[in-house]
Predict the 3D structure of the following.
Amino acid sequence: MYRWTTLVALLLSMACICAAGAFNSVVFQSPLPGAQLVTPESRIILRISGQVDPVSLTPAGAIDARGSASGSHPGRIVPSRDLRTLQFVPDESFTLGETVSVSFARSFKLLRGESVLPEPFSFVISHTRLTMAPEQYLNEEMQESRDERERVTTDGPKGPPDRTTAGAVAPLPLNFPFVQTTTFGTPSPGRIFLSNFSANASNVPHLLILDDDGQPVFFKPMHGSCLDFKMQPNGLLTYYDTFLGYFIAMDSTYQVVDSFRCGNGYSTDLHELRLLDNGHALLMSYDPQVVDMSAVVPGGKPTAVVTGLVIQELDEEKNVVFQWRSWDHFQITDATHENLTAAAIDYVHGNAIDLDQDGNLLISSRHLDEITKINRETGDIMWRMGGKNNQFTFLNDSIGYSHQHAIRRLPNGNVTLFDNGNFHATHYSRALEYQLDEVARTATLVWQFRRQPDDYGAFMGYVQRLDNGNTLIGWGAGNPAVTEVNPSGDIVFELRFDNAVYSYRAFRYLWHSADPRPPFERRFVADPPAKLPQSGERPDDDPIRSAAGRDDRRACLRPPGAQGPDARRGIAPCGRTLRNAGRRDVARDRGLLLPADGRLVLADA
């Protein structure tokens, strides 16, 4: 009798719960319950298992957010277009150091008839507020790689003899960067997208779209360094402007039409912007926080500045609909080569995000030596590859990758990345392609390219698989800056800047501008003042014109011990090498002749 009574009571209880709809079907929330080091501007994000009836979101008061110091925070609930993701936007920011408690006054009704009543939770706001310019992390990366950079050979072109000859004249300004291109075979169709970067103040940063001869199809001088200049799937051209501190988007006429920056009070990091087919955007932020490292490692500083990583997804209205923080998932001690007793520790250093074929996320964390797969629905880690928490067995590759960049999933299911190689036994960089078995957790090396002699890009870098099977490799801090190889590993194209001038990434795209002006009139496109501050001024015209050499198709004999695509072919075309130089000092350094008429002519080398 007792058992029967208990069963009836249990069934009645369940019936009451079902009638009330008191189910907790929240699949993702941000901040996480118990989260620490949360920004005061944070919004509360809930993702529900089903679509929410918008009528149940009103009137206000369904969510009660209360700070231990600031008290009640009224606000509004903003549903996303999918009606599954809700944002609670407080009218005022929270207070530093306080604990925020979140409770729910009533349930949310789903369109399918059920109701959801989320569990109450709390999180803690950071005690301090730190701000650092995003480019500071790039400068620190350059500084820590100083020893490696000194090992990079920077004594001029490698490979076949330089057969540069006098060539055509093109009107370029004096501050235009020196560019040298060499074609050994048949490159993929398309234009090269990149942006020159240097710690040397004499370098003027530009956005560059170049043809295979190194001639600009479009160029734009900038106030400060710009990175990740590329074409998005929707045709927009985007780049990170360090002068502004966020990403800018231009249309096919090179007019500024949009901008992208992180929400929830986070600064926007320079490494990555991915625009998705659904109109959403993926961004990352570096999050410096004061951490008592003496409680983490012996000898740790009690007020160390430790930098975490934040991944965000913005919807069409630029609302944050997904947020993932390294503080919630990684340990500071996961860093592989960082000095954890230092005053400043950048323990993650994310540098790439990719949308995987199953809709989840792949991220690259340089200072963890790790590629991580993140469930985009729940925020959970699905697997970790490389570094201290490696879950994969590497086949055909005994050394793995070190301080890598540019994780990308290919249409064939494999992944590519750029192995900077900072902590290999000898310093060299390479492009890698792995076949992943995510069930058996194996990574099989199916292709790699290691330049001979070695090129070593201690920081930055990118690998792009092109439609015809060729691979474009941006060597970051290496020399040359860009190499394109065919599937057999033969070099078909290379591009060089001046020594100590780099490009964070390089891309090749089929690009056709809608700008009706001739290429050399596309000097500068002013940003509309109503939308954004101007990021540069049109340079004054100058009578100095730089030269680009003409095609040299003479045959030559490869010298003994020659490396590269023609090393085993005997007599073959030398390849064409074309240069342009836009500064008087570069003209002198390169042996350019400056006639009285002001025309720069490139002499035979």
